[in-house]
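Sorry to interrupt, but I need a hand with the structure work. Go ahead and set the record down below:
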Amino acid sequence: MGKRTKQYKRLMRQFEHLGFRQPYQLLMTSDIILDTLKLELITLFEKALSTKDLKPMITQCCIVCLFSLWLSRTVLTW
């Protein structure tokens, strides 16, 4: 097990003492989603947090932002 993996596990144990538990909810913003379109972000976070119980979440305002960006790109291609 690598040094970074041990650090992540120790950090997650500290969060468990504060009341955080699995499944972890990962709040993602529209910027993160746009910047990491080609990456398998959920898989990377599951590997970093050593868990398979991860629920990606997104706020309504980020959904509106992504939708407006999608609409502007579709209008420009017409």
